[in-house]
Amino acid sequence: MTVTLITGANKGLGFETAKQLLELGHTVYVGARDVERGEKAAATLGARFVQLDVTDDASVRDALASIESAEDRLDVLVNNAGILGVGPVDGPTALRVFDTNVVGIVRVTEAALPLLRKSSNPTVVTVSSSMGSFWAVTNPDRPEFNLSATLYSASKSAATMLTVQYAKSQPGIKFNAIEPGYTATDMMAAIGGGRPAAESAKTIVGLATLGPDGPTGTFQDELGTLGW
Question: Which member of 11, 19, 128, 129 is catalytic?
């Protein structure tokens, strides 16, 4: 049984990713900051809940300790938790966005590494964004060219770079970043539009179910490797 942890999994992309991986036979831990919402989501899915706030070191440490106690390993980690960071571009907002979207990845990944090393096919997927791609946002033929999300975009650039650097420093573990596609989630409600989360979740599931010889250190979307 493949043991999987998904952060920010009580709704949206995380929830749909959990649902699809459960259907594939994974034991899925729904990581969520809010206990009530997390427990409700896990019960709806038939998954397991673990309280996990990616901005809190103790919460992350306790969450991984719970998984270690129950499973003694972790096969797949999906770094999904993230925020858009709408509002003023200022110091406090920047700290909040980067603490969640970047430092949160470091907190969870570092806490998970000892358990991932116990897996026969350890895999880490980070939900990033082409909004963090220099290639995409400067290309007039790309939709990102006409969008502006200063702090979110910068944080996703950092998230993708973390993926590449972890892939280099942890050669026994696959690390890949994914652009899941423009998706109708609560985070994107202010912009509107987007495809169903279940459709975009398929891209995450694809990287979460790679075989032992799968790629590492890549940034992809549903069509393949993306420039960034």
Answer: 129
Cβ neighbour number for residue 70 with a 10 Å cutoff: 12
11 among known catalytic residues: no
Angle at 149 between CA 202 and CA 80, to 5 degrees: 30
Task: Give the domain CATH number at 80.
Answer: 3.40.50.720
With CA atoms as reference, report the closest residue to 31 among 20, 15, 46, 12.
15
Do 137 and 145 form a contact (C-beta atoms < 8 A)? yes
Number of domains in the chain: 1
> Is 119 a residue of the active site?
no
Q: Which of 59, 156, 157, 200 is catalytic?
A: 156
Q: What is the pLDDT of residues 110-165, one digit of tens each?
A: 999 999 999 999 999 999 998 888 898 888 988 878 888 899 999 999 999 999 99
Range of the domain at 187: 3-225
